[in-house]
Amino acid sequence: xxxxxxxxxxxxxxxxxxxxxxxxxxxxxxxxxxxxxxxxxxxxxxxxxxxxxxxxxxxxxxxxxxxxxxxxxxxxxxxxxxxxxxxxxxxxxxxxxxxxxxxxxxxxxxxxxxxxxxxxxxxxxxxxxxxxxxxxxxxxxxxxxxxxxxxxxxxxxxxxxxxxxxxxxxxxxxxxxxxxxxxxxxxxxxxxxxxxxxxxxxxxxxxxxxxxxxxxxxxxxxxxxxxxxxxxxxxxxxxxxxxxxxxxxxxxxxxxxxxxxxxxxxxxxxxxxxxxxxxxxxxxxxxxxxxxxxxxxxxxxxxxxxxxxxxxxxxxxxxxxxxxxxxxxxxxxxxxxxxxxxxxxxxxxxxxxxxxxxxxxxxxxxxxxxxxxxxxxxxxxxxxxxxxxxxxxxxxxxxxxxxxxxxxxxxxxxxxxxx
Length: 419
Prior knowledge:
Blueprint: H1 20-26, E1 38-42, E2 45-48, E3 53-56, H2 59-62, H3 71-81, H4 94-106, E4 111-115, H5 118-136, E5 143-147, H6 156-161, E6 178-181, H7 186-192, E7 197-202, E8 205-206, E9 212-213, H8 216-229, E10 232-236, H9 251-254, E11 260-263, E12 274-278, H10 280-283, H11 299-312, H12 315-338, E13 343-349, E14 352-357, H13 365-374, E15 377-378, E16 380-381, E17 386-389, H14 397-417
Parallel strand pairs: 3-15, 5-6, 5-7, 7-10, 10-11
Antiparallel strand pairs: 1-2, 2-3, 4-12, 8-9, 11-12, 13-14, 14-17, 16-17
């Protein structure tokens, strides 16, 4: 047997130093990142190349919900890295089987499909819905209904289903048989969901569309309309799932069960993984070879996701998320009262929150997040009119208080600069 070759560290070429400017030199310009370049993090604390500390209230857009470097997740990844890295689709593996069993045991679902991202999970969901309807009803039943200002991914199919034209401009022609209706509008849903609809997809809490929760009445109406018209109800919980709302998945707080649910982001706490969950009957529309992905069910990703799920899905953990959310909402409402010229209201669910700008500040959400970064607080936007907060679910009351203090300093600075 050939012996394993040891790596000669001295023979490896040293990595050249990089700066934020390197992004403009070597990467495709699909993003406009901050001038600050993060280099390390722990929990909600993050440091840049200059050693400056920041409080991370973005969680990588809802990804690192257990914070950076969570010890249980790190241990799971290290243990799996010493065991089995990857096998092709011709094989299965223990971590993915354990993850599939855990997710189906914890949800309505009976079957799981694993992939790499939320876009892939939604792509699989939309393909499955059309395949299921084609087999059960015929090719005429192919239309997919989604909501204005929704976001479901960046593949051509998912970005077309998403209801934001700014993401599809220049990529035409788009996939056909798609319709967008106003969010939370039951009458519009009733008019759109007819016999030719194969699926209705909705985010229980719209993320990129402005951190806007669905009303319970709206989701219940969608369930009833889908049942009446033989359409599948798909919940995109890529951002609002995995404990973000204080429930393992948001549907559990609404009392409305979807036919298909998609998850990603926080499922891997930073390790790329996505999942589509559904029932045995619907899953049967896919057969061997009808869909797939090279890295879906990767042992490394599955081991990490299982540990994340085990950590989040406890009553103690989820109760603490609700407590933290109440504390943060109270602090943010106080900011709204103290800065009425900037903010009009706070909305969202759990630790998925948006601060809606007042009329005089509409379009200036990015100005506020830049000012917050200057004060050592990382925030997000959800469109030009909403400042979005997605802190890790392990955020402490002390970190909430400090984050709010830094936000207040940022607001004072912005207001002073705009006198």
